[in-house]
Amino acid sequence: MKDTKKNIQIYDTTLRDGAQTVGISFSLQDKIRIALMLDKFRIDYIEGGWPGSNPKDDLFFKEIKNENIKHSKITAFGFTKRHRMSLKEDKLLQALVNSGADTITIVAKSWDFQVINALNIELEDNLKLISETISYLKDKGFEVILDAEHFFDGFKENPHYAGECLNKASEAGADMLVLCDTNGGTLPHEVSSIVETITDSIDTEIGVHFHNDTGVAVANSISAILKGAVSVQGTINGYGERCGNCDLTTLIPNIILKMGYNCSCFNQLKNLTELSWFVSETANLAHNELMPYVGDNTFAHKGGIHVSALKKDTRTYEHIDPSLVGNRRKIAISELSGKSNIQYKAEELGIDLEKDATLSKRVLDTIKGLEDKGFHFEGAEGTFELLLREATGEYVPFFKLKGFRVITEMDENNHLECEGTIKVEVKGAIEHTAANGKGPVEALDNALRKALEKFYPEINEMYLTDYKVRVLDSKEGTASSVRVLIDQKKGKKYWGTVGVSTNIIEASWQALVDGIEYMLYMEKSKNPENGKDR
Fold first, then answer.
1. Which of 219, 380, 394, 409 is spaced 20 to 30 Å from 236 by Cα?
2. DSSP string, 82-114
């Protein structure tokens, strides 16, 4: 990577614009934790929210003062003062002043259509609101950023008025003018032309803010940078209203690794994947496996030809070294795999296949046979590792099923109750137990855990985190085969397992058992004494 002189400022609005994502509701503590992570990553501006609009944002600006923010400028967001109201009478404006924020971002209409139809005021009145608000805040000593809302739509319809909004803000002392594509409908070639026109005509620094409604928010931001913009607003993972915002986890490595620009977070790039996962976990949303740079499958390889080439030189099928952004290479195992995949995966797991020249082929044949029946190992690395270690003799099952039964009853009040009864052989002993559950799978899981816990107490430290069912041959109707994928965790370790059957209970059983067996094998590997006398 080459550090260049031109610096691009990164402005994060995950805590405001990103929080408008359907399904996200950050708590106060969530917002503070994310802000601290963004500061650690050396994001230049963190937009904390809108003081005066809700109690949570007011508390955020109060509480964040008690934290040790080392780099980022905490920024408050709000509107220009309201029409026919004095600056001191406007409580929302005064909430900005009293927030204690380092920087204030003022949003103002720059599209004449919005001024007339949304604000219902005269065009000249809107210009006065912009000028008076920014002058007032500058007199108070704040750094002030203008967010010119709907700027690109406004410029396309009335370039003179959109330009006047910027001029008034600049004359009033705004430190930066941000051109916003609020509806997200502008394309890169339009952005290039408009941003070039603005940067050629105004001395104040220009930033941009793009929504992703046409899928080009990152591309638009790059186009704007190439034409002179020095700041980009966006969110981690592209969260935001409707289709989201410019995704900073894609933009930042693009401008550093591909374009040679510098950012304050230049030396933190190796922590980008961690930041992305942290925000998605805090938002309680599944992390997108296919995201550029930071997805779990971003550097995953499935085709045998690809894997064979990667072993010779990773540049054959990877555009960057995954470690530059804190990610990792991943070799997927499937019916498209070749011997190279098996060997690569074995090396990753520390398994020596060289002792038996035919072993990798036998494992591959087994995998292809199972996948022909509907098994799917790309999301079930736990099952695959057990399969591989069983083939090498390293793994022997910790218990053996002798039989199970599941009873589901519904009473006259339509209340369902499930009971699972199970008989297993563990360390030479026969355990016969029963347990209830809200559904048949939970009943079986509870019964199995009950049977095993006195032999393997660590089983109580593992949890099921996800359960997915996929119908494989829908033309068979209710007799179709189903694939069950189960994700489980113990501490910070996650793993996936798979089961396939025409009976959903059997498929679930297969995946549940593999999940428990995998955890027990991992524990045995750490503590060999635990695996004796099975």
1. 380
2. PTTS-TTT-HHHHHHHTT--SEEEEEEE--HHH
Q: Tell me, yes or no, whether 498 and 518 share the same domain.
A: yes
Strand order in the sheet with 493-501: 462-471, 482-490, 493-501
CATH assignment at residue 238: 3.20.20.70
Cα 451 to Cα 206, 425, 437, 445: the distances in Å are 66, 9, 15, 10
122 and 112 Cβ atoms separated by less than 8 Å: no
In a domain, 293, yes or no: no
* Residue span of the structural domain in which 439 resides: 399-455
| Same domain flag for 331 and 377 | no
* 176-191 mean pLDDT: 98
In eight-state DSSP terms, residue 475 is: G
Confirm if 295 and 289 have CB atoms less than 8 A apart: yes
CB 126 within 8 A of CB 106: no
Q: Tokens 């007011």 map to which residue?
A: 58
Token look-up 């009950």 returns 450
- Please give the single-letter amino acid code of residue 270: K
Q: Specify whether the CB–CB gap between 422 and 444 falls below 8 A.
A: yes
d(Cα 345, Cα 349) in Å, to the nearest integer? Answer: 6
377's CB contacts (< 8 A; 6+ apart) are 332, 333, 334, 367, 370, 371, 383, 384, 498
| Domain annotation covers residue 287 | no
Provide the whole-model pTM.
Answer: 0.70
pLDDT in tens, 321-337: 998 999 878 666 555 45
Per the structure, how many domains does the chain have?
A: 4
* Lowest-confidence region among 97-106, 244-253, 472-481: 472-481
Nearest to 31 by CA among 45, 54, 49: 49
Please check whether residues 216 and 355 belong to one and the same domain.
Answer: no
Same domain as 152, residue 13: yes
Determine phi and psi for 197, rounding to 5 degrees. Answer: -60, -45
